[in-house]
Sequence to fold (55 residues):
Amino acid sequence: MVLTADTTVNARRRALALGARDFVGKPFDIVEIALRIANLLEMQILYERLSSVRT
Fold:
């Protein structure tokens, strides 16, 4: 997850191209960030479960 003041299209594209899973620009909302982190963690857990089922 990238937290930045630079919210230009180029900054978002670069962050995503480098592997960022999410991009949040200023001003930051702590509740939104917490929800996004929870979603990212849930996606990781589901990915790991799926990977273990496939092996």
Observations:
- The beta strands are 2-4, 23-25.
- The chain has two helices and two strands.
